[in-house]
Design goal:
Low-confidence stretches: 1-24, 38-44, 46-55
Radius of gyration: 29 Å
Number of strands: 2
Shape: globular
Order of helices and strands: EEHHHHHHHHHHHHHHHH
């Protein structure tokens, strides 16, 4: 039943069309309602995106404003915990293999330590390159460059992980034979390392994500993901070794699963972000300029990490010339290095991230302050840990050894190394600072000369003459002092170029 009619004037005549008015009004009302609902939904979506962006921002540490001393410390604390957890979870592989499997499983896992350090160090270096380049583009608020950097870096890191995986799987036996792995341990070591290598693509992706989030000032989320995956790693270690009666292969499988989980979690998070750090799989494109910038930073850093591992092999060669007690004491004392070095490395990451971010934002007055604050924290961490190690070294060594002779042999190393950690901070922090300003090739060359060539020369001269443990370990202090002085002078030069506006 029609209530209203519409009057239309056509050629001066009024025509009454029943129901047209109500139809038009209904359509108008419907369109208005839908328009309002659409607008409301749009506003709601915008509010949700804003809320998520604000949430991401609230978790991030401010880099270009506020107190540098406070922000660098807050930025570094989660990184310190991340690094320590990573060391502890890696030690869990050795601990579970040694406790619940036979000595061959322990030896198989332990004999691959240098190789794992070598290849993972390269992937970590690539992640550092990603961190610096993304931090710079974020500081400059260049959304297009940030997007290209992130998506290109993802392709580079994933490809690097796959390539290293193939190399390790194909040449695992040859490499382990070259390192003179014991015959009775060789098969287990090859199996462990081949399986462990399957997780390298996931490890590369995680380091990519860690680099991006650190550049954005978020170091808490990588800590969370590492904690979850690390706990899973320990649980799976126990399950495969105890329940499934597996040995080194079970430990390796557990590591691979944990690495895949961490990579998936960090990738999903980046894909769900609504800010400049969003990763969209549909936008994956290889951008040559971005790739060049990332690789020019990442490859030298990765090679630098590898060089340290190679240099340590020369030192181990010198240690192996002593008796079994001395070798065992050294092996126990080396565990302290990982804990302290990884603690200090958190401040080096903070140094490069803050410097790069402020450089991109044009806040040049904060570059030197970021370097000084990071160096102070790293030096203090090394000095304090060194003093604690000197005071409680025997208690620390008793975790890894029971024989008093082995503990005393380990203390010979600790008494020298405890003074070295603070000295090393000048070298590593200056390297990180130069990297933050886009320079990594020259620092790598200086490291090769100072920490590798110098050590080889020292072993064949000073150590060859005296043939004592102190004569061997003193090379750390001298090599780090010389290299640190050279790296500091180079950063000073690069910093002056930056302030003068002549830095390329």
């Amino acid at each position: 039943m029609f209530i209203l009619v519409t009057i239309i004037t056509l050629n001066g005549q009024k025509i009454y069309i029943p129901g047209l008015e109500i139809g038009i009004r209904q359509c108008y009302t419907l369109l208005l309602h839908r328009g309002r609902n659409g607008y409301n939904r749009m506003q709601e979506g915008n509010m949700q995106r804003t809320h998520r962006a604000h949430y991401h921002h609230s978790r991030a540490i401010e880099m270009t404003s506020g107190s540098l001393w406070k922000n660098i410390l807050l930025f570094s604390i989660p990184l310190v915990l991340t690094q320590l957890l990573e060391v502890l979870f890696n030690l869990s592989d050795v601990a579970v293999a040694g406790e619940f499997a036979d000595y061959r499983a322990l030896g198989a896992v332990g004999s691959t330590t240098q190789l794992v350090t070598l290849f993972t160090g390269f992937l970590i270096g690539l992640g550092s390159g990603v961190n610096v380049e993304v931090a710079r583009s974020l500081g400059a608020e260049d959304r297009e460059r940030t997007e290209k950097n992130i998506h290109t870096s993802f392709i580079i890191c994933a490809a690097a992980g796959v390539l290293l995986c193939l190399i390790c799987c194909v040449f695992a036996r040859d490499i382990l034979v070259l390192l003179r792995t014991k015959d009775e341990l060789l098969e287990g070591a090859v199996l462990y390392f081949s399986i462990y290598a399957l997780g390298m693509p996931a490890m590369a992706v995680y380091n990519f994500g860690n680099g991006v989030l650190s550049a954005a000032g978020d170091t808490k989320r990588p800590l969370l993901y590492l904690t979850i995956s690390g706990i899973l790693n320990v649980i799976l270690n126990l399950f495969f070794v105890i329940k499934c009666h597996m040995a080194a292969d079970g430990v390796a499988i557990a590591s691979v699963i944990a690495q895949v989980l961490s990579a998936v979690m960090i990738t999903v998070h980046l894909c769900r972000r609504d800010d400049d750090c969003r990763l969209s799989l549909s936008k994956l494109r290889f951008n040559v300029p971005s790739a060049k910038r990332v690789l020019m930073l990442g490859i030298p850093t990765g090679l630098q990490n590898a060089i340290f591992a190679v240099a340590n092999m020369f030192v181990q060669t010198g240690v192996n010339t002593f008796d079994a007690v001395t070798v065992s004491g050294n092996s126990a004392a080396v565990n302290a290095d990982s804990l302290i070095f990884n603690t200090q490395s958190a401040f080096y990451t903070a140094c490069s991230s803050f410097i790069s971010r402020n450089w991109g934002a044009g806040r040049k007055e904060r570059i030197l302050k970021s370097y000084i604050a990071s160096l102070t924290y790293a030096f203090a961490a090394g000095a304090i840990c060194g003093v604690l190690l000197l005071c409680f070294g025997r208690e620390f060594l008793s975790i890894f050894a029971n024989e008093q002779a082995v503990i005393e042999a380990g203390m010979q190393r600790i008494k020298i190394m405890c003074f070295s950690y603070g000295v090393g901070a000048f070298m590593d922090c200056s390297i990180a600072a130069a990297r933050g300003l886009g320079k990594s090739i020259v620092p790598m060359i200086i490291v090769v000369l100072g920490s590798c060539v110098f050590r080889v020369v020292w072993i064949y001269t000073v150590f060859a003459f005296y043939k004592t443990i102190p004569a061997l370990y003193l090379l750390y202090i001298f090599s780090w002092a010389i290299t640190g002085a050279a790296e500091t002078l180079y950063f000073r030069r690069v910093y002056r170029q930056c302030m003068a506006g002549t830095l390329a």
